[in-house]
């Protein structure tokens, strides 16, 4: 973006397109706080879709759908796992990268353990896997609270109510 070239993206446009929490995420994770950052609508759309729609949104949906379908009981532990040093050091990108690494690890766990298949042959084992996923999803929601407060609250409420939420992040038109 460059004021002299006239290709500036207004924050209000970002919020209109992606919503408040998604805009916060995009700016905090992908825009360097001190140096220039090359930003385009195409890149923003790519990050939004890959990390929010297909990443956090899909993971939340999968876990809560299994929990709801298998009637898994889980009580919120109210834990938060914040890397306070990276926040104090103003390294918010590192903090968010760490959270998204956890999201990837949970996706890998689902693929490896396949609780959606295990439920047919080992109901208790599958429910144990889903409780494990819920505990880690709660941790991710706690980590996200300072960055995506509405999304964090939506995930925690969905876990508490054992009900899959509407899509956290709608697909772009």
Provide key terms for this protein.
0% strand, Isoleucyl-tRNA Synthetase, Domain 1, single chain, 173 residues, mainly alpha
Report what the structure shows:
With 173 residues, the protein is mostly helical. The chain has one domain: Orthogonal Bundle (Isoleucyl-tRNA Synthetase, Domain 1), CATH 1.10.730.10. It contains eight helices and no strands. It is elongated.
In a few lines, what is going on in this structure?
The protein has 173 residues and is mostly helical. Helices cover 66% and strands 0% of the residues. The chain has a single domain, classed as Isoleucyl-tRNA Synthetase, Domain 1 (Orthogonal Bundle), CATH 1.10.730.
